[in-house]
Write a structure and sequence with these properties.
- By secondary structure, this protein is an alpha+beta fold.
- The protein folds into 2 domains: about 80 residues; about 80 residues, Roll (Nuclear Transport Factor 2, Chain: A), CATH 3.10.450.
- Strands 1, 2, 3, 4, 5, 6, 7, 8, 9 and 10 form a 10-stranded antiparallel β-sheet that branches.
- The chain is globular and about 50 Å long.
- The protein starts with a helix and ends in an 8-residue tail after the last strand.
Length: about 160
């Protein structure tokens, strides 16, 4: 199942329609999964400007709704995601990111991949974070409309808690 299919699966479910019937202020903001050998079920997130909360639905064998939670946002509101504007599939984005990893970070062997499809800077991006076997975090952002690599960076997991 790709992100488009996960959104359709969630939004076509009775659970989602019932949820939206209770509060129609929620809109799509992200699709999330992990890859470690196999891909985990997609988690599809919806945000409300009114409540400033996010509700996540997991698209497994059936749709499961998580309780509303505080949304992580830098400022303002979380921008909506239009999956209709996403023409680059996850497998293609992972291929592009794999090329960047092989060219720029050849010594980084990937253990787990964290995938987030979201809007950053006004455009839909595949925000791909690779957890490497050397305890580094390699982040590669791929434009979900064009396939262009927007950014890449490598950080040590050990430095995450340190003040700089």
């Amino acid at each position: 199942m790709d992100a488009h299919e996960a959104v359709e699966f969630v939004e076509g479910s009775e659970r989602f329609r019932g949820f939206l019937g209770e509060d129609g202020s929620y809109y799509l903001v992200h699709c999330f999964c992990t890859v470690e050998g196999e891909r985990s079920p997609w988690q599809v997130g919806y945000y409300s400007r009114r409540t400033r909360k996010i509700v996540v639905f997991t698209a497994g064998k059936e749709v499961v709704q998580a309780p509303a939670d505080e949304a992580f946002r830098e400022s303002g509101h979380v921008p909506p995601l239009d999956v209709g504007g996403v023409s680059v599939r996850l497998d293609d984005a992972l291929g592009v990111a794999g090329e960047v990893r092989r060219e720029r970070y050849p010594h980084e062997a990937v253990g787990k991949t964290i995938v987030l499809l979201q809007v950053i800077g006004g455009r839909p991006l595949w925000n791909l974070t690779f957890i490497t076997q050397s305890f580094n975090m390699l982040n590669i952002r791929v434009d979900a409309a064009s396939g262009e690599v927007v950014a890449d960076s490598l950080h040590s997991l050990m430095s995450l808690g340190r003040q700089e």
